[in-house]
């Protein structure tokens, strides 16, 4: 697909996950912003121009950059993430990227199928893409919140899933297994979540309300942190 053929004038290409970029070190927002030829003259400088003479730098919104909206006061994103993503794409090639995408979708659907009997799904019909989406309706009643469940996952050695981004009544529990996880690791993850789900239904609230119990740092007092945030570090 060529977005320009569809009439797209501007696009932010999110490098997170699909091209190996982690959540940290630049985060999901890291990625180039591309413009159509009609909008390109208005992009904020600095620009790097490539022509017959080689590369040149346009620093100010004047002269050749006279139509620019202004000048960026900081650099255009996290360059390390751009280099990492480019190296990832070039090392895989087109056939490798296709395999990566197919493996990610396969892994997500495997997780979706294994957890379907224990956790509710807002869209149960049909396969998913690279993310298996659950919600917290199955937690209603036992007294365990989505946050409680996520903190208990830390005790099992797993980073919690993405959650709480939905503004609806039911909170999201979004699992992205990626293409690199083996069948053995996916089973270890699913077994842990199924065991935690069983503990919820058995009413083992103590296991969840104070979690994580075995992590180096315990759970924060989120109410106190919100009302009295410490915004400046001082040496002890």
Structure description:
The chain is built from 5 helices and 7 strands. It is an alpha+beta fold. A hairpin with an 8-residue loop joins strand 6 and strand 7. The chain is globular, with a radius of gyration of 23 Å.
Element layout with pairings:
Elements: E1 10-12, E2 33-35, E3 47-51, E4 54-58, H1 79-115, E5 132-135, H2 146-155, E6 162-163, E7 172-175, H3 183-201, H4 205-209, H5 222-227
Antiparallel strand pairs: 1-2, 3-4, 5-7, 6-7
Which features does this protein show?
single chain; 236 residues; alpha+beta; three-stranded antiparallel β-sheet; two-stranded antiparallel sheet; 5 helices; 7 strands; 33% helix
What proportion of the residues is helical, as a percent range?
25-40%
SSE series: EEEEHEHEEHHH
How many whole angstroms does the radius of gyration measure?
A: 23 Å
Instruction: Tell me the β content.
Output: 5-15%
First-residue to last-residue Cα separation: 56 Å
Question: What's the total count of β strands?
Answer: 7
Count of helix runs: 5
The major beta sheet can be summarized as: 3 strands, antiparallel
Weakly predicted, low-confidence segments: none
């Amino acid at each position: 697909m060529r977005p320009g053929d569809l009439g797209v004038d501007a696009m932010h290409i999110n490098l997170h996950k699909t091209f190996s970029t982690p959540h940290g070190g630049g985060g999901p927002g890291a990625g180039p912003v591309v413009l159509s030829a009609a909008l390109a003259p208005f992009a904020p400088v600095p620009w790097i121009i490539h022509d017959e003479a080689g590369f040149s730098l346009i620093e100010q919104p004047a002269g050749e950059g006279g139509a620019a909206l202004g000048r960026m006061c900081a650099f255009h994103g996290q360059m390390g993430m751009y280099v990492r993503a480019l190296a990832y794409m070039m090392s895989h090639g087109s056939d490798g990227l296709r395999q990566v995408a197919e493996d990610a979708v396969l892994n997500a659907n495997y997780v979706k199928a294994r957890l379907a009997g224990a956790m509710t799904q807002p869209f149960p019909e049909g396969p998913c893409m690279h993310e298996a989406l659950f919600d917290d309706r199955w937690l209603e009643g036992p007294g365990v919140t989505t946050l409680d469940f996520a903190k208990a996952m830390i005790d099992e050695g797993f980073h919690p899933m993405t959650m709480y981004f939905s503004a609806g009544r039911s909170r999201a529990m979004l699992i992205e297994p990626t293409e690199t996880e083996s069948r053995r690791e996916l089973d270890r993850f699913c077994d842990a979540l199924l065991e935690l789900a069983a503990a919820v239904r058995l009413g083992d609230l103590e296991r969840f309300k104070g979690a994580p119990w075995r992590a180096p740092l315990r759970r924060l007092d989120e109410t106190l942190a919100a009302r009295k945030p410490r915004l400046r570090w001082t040496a002890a």
